[in-house]
Each structure stands twice: as structure tokens, then as C-alpha cells.
Amino acid sequence: MADISWLKAQPIAHRGYHDMNKQVWENTLSAFSRAVDAGFAIECDLQYTADSIPVVFHDDDTQRLCGIKGDVRSRTAGELGLMAIGGTKDKVPTLTQMLRLVAGKVPLVIELKGRKGDDEGFAAAVLETLEGYKGHVALMSFDHWLLKDLKALDAPYPLGLTAEGANPETFFVHEEAMQLGLDFISYHYGHLPNSFITKERTLGKTIITWTVRDRQAEAYTFAHADQMTFEGFDPREALVS
Hints:
Elements: E1 12-14, H1 29-38, E2 41-48, E3 54-56, H2 63-66, H3 77-80, H4 95-102, E4 108-112, H5 122-130, E5 137-141, H6 144-152, E6 159-163, H7 168-178, E7 184-188, H8 195-202, E8 206-212, H9 215-224, E9 227-230
Parallel strand pairs: 1-2, 1-9, 2-4, 4-5, 5-6, 6-7, 7-8, 8-9
Antiparallel strand pairs: 2-3
Helix pairs in contact: 1-4, 5-6
Domain GP-PDE: 9-241
InterPro entries: GP_PDE_dom, PLC-like_Pdiesterase_TIM-brl
Protein name: Glycerophosphodiester phosphodiesterase
């Protein structure tokens, strides 16, 4: 297995280092620039546009972030690139724009947001966009079919399962995904510890958590996992005794 110790070396800013969408909004170039300046790794989400371009956006619909109702996948990257996020100067960025900004300065943990039956070419487009990028990158998804696609395409990056659940019935599904030969897991911190994660840790898998929003959750993460994906506070600030 390739060395992925970098994945747990620094806190991972959830959707970039935003300020809970007050002035700096999630998954924007401003949030990514702020994370780079702070030295945090960056977690972000990818959607797939009508013209087959990966863009950095979380939701299936543009209403919450752009104030305009509509399916993100029915629009082109150019159309999304004109849509203001939260009424700010930031527009929906392409993966290419984000890579150009970050330029290998901090690690990237990229989640592909799938839609079953509508993802043909998505994994390939992501890998094509990443080709030649100089910097640490890991790819992950909740969606097993996208992980299978990435594996089939011999993705040269660490691959991870994004998951949650405390019910043992869900663990069988997670274990099926891990049989693809994945390298790490991003798990909901509130569902730890559990037998699935304990087993994977004994097998040497790196475990990161989502989404940590306070010091209590941070302490809980490091009792049961290797690193956190956080938002809403600054992990660099000293704890007040």
C-alpha cells in the first residue's frame, strides 16, 4: 500500500475553511484560499455537469447555495460559473479552477457525489482533470459504483469510502465496498466506535471523521480515529482551561 500518512497529518477543512456561510461560503475559491493560508487540508465535493465537467458543489439542487432552484446536473459548467454563491463574489468553481488555486500547497480530499444511473464518465472526467496535478490527492465517495469505476480506471490516488451508521446491518454494505481494496474511510464521528471501524483500523486502514464542529467532537475523534474533517472553529487555537 502506498504511504498515505499525509492524510492524517493535518486537520481537514470541511468544504474548505469557510465561516459557516456567513461571508466565506462552502466549496468556494475563497474558502479554499483561506484553508491554504491556514495550512489546513481541504475536503470538497464534486458534481458532474451537463457538459461532463466536474465542478465543486455539494447539493443536487442549486437553491440553497445560489438562490435559484434547479438541478445542478442540468446546467453546464459555464452556466454554473455565472451563479453567485450566497450572494457573494464567488461563483461555482470547476475542479480545474480549484486545482489551479491550491496548486499542491495543501492536501485535497475530494468526494464524488454520485447519482446512480447518471454517472457515466464521471470518474474518468475527474481523473482526466487531475492528470499532471502536483500535490497530495485522495478520492472518496458514499457511492460504491463510483469507487468501482475509479478502481477499474486504475486511479493513481488513495481511494476511500465515505460512510456512516451504527447499526451492524449497515456494516455488511460497508465491508462489501472495502473489498474493492480501498485505502481509507471517512466516517461520521458520532457513530464511533463500532466493530466495522475497529476491524478496519486493525487492518491498517486510515480513518478520518466528519463533520467535527467543536472541541468535544474533536477529542472524541482522536479517541477513535486518525484525523478529523472539521468546520466552524479553528483547531489551531489553544484550548482554554
